[in-house]
Amino acid sequence: MLRPLVPDGDWEHRFPRLRGMRFHLAVHGVQDARAAPVLLLPDVGRTWWSWRHLLPTLSPDRTVVALDPRGVGASDRTPGGYTLPEVVADLAAVVHHLGAGPAVVVGHGWGGVAALALASRHPALVAGLGLVAAPVPGAWQGYRRLLAASLLGARALTPARLGRWTALQAVDGSPCAEALSHWPGPQRALAPVRRAARRPRLLRELGTDVATLHVRGSSDPLLPRPRRGLRDVVVLPAGHQLPEERPGDLAVTLRGWLATLA
């Protein structure tokens, strides 16, 4: 039952089979778009839905795609394949599937790390890199610890305790227990972060010459202050969940940056 995960809106749901599994894409298409498509990646523990406000408003002349990564939302769950190299291979397959050459890839939080890894390994596939509240190399250890602590509260979202959450429901109004059955839970959600923690050198070596924009919230508890010398940083009055706290401001910021890309 996918209804809680794919609510109707100003987008189209697609389910391509790539690398032997089914992925879910929410697509706001522009007919005969000539500019590079925009691929939106959610933070760890979140789904494509976190980008719902930007999908129809981000760009008038580009196809905008929000992805459910492997094991998240309406994409297939697999026993393995959650290492950073495997995630990068998934993203490369998605970009190839879009069939319009390189894509502009925008990642929120841990999705930004995945986007940076894609640009580092396959720069020809990335026309621009947007890092939204994403831990840049050298800052991810503190992000991992704080994120793990913040997800501990998710243990309260169990079927036995749902009766206490009287205002909780799925995005389409269906019972929250049904929607919760599709959520990976805090342990599975943190799996990519835990695996990367075992190979810190892999993250330290990430880097790219692709045109990059950094956007962060002024009150983000998961990120340290931007490093000196880091260029193209926009700070918005918000916390960590910029796509949902400040979708309008974030859309304006990203649109201005997209206009500078070829």
TrEMBL record:
Superkingdom of origin: Bacteria
Domain AB hydrolase-1: 37-140
GO molecular function (one): catalytic activity
InterPro entries cross-referenced by the UniProt entry: AB_hydrolase_1 (IPR000073), AB_hydrolase_fold (IPR029058), Carboxylesterase_BioH (IPR050228)
Pfam families assigned: Abhydrolase_1
Residue ranges of coiled coil: none
UniProt-recorded name of the protein: Pimeloyl-ACP methyl ester carboxylesterase
Organism of origin: Auraticoccus monumenti
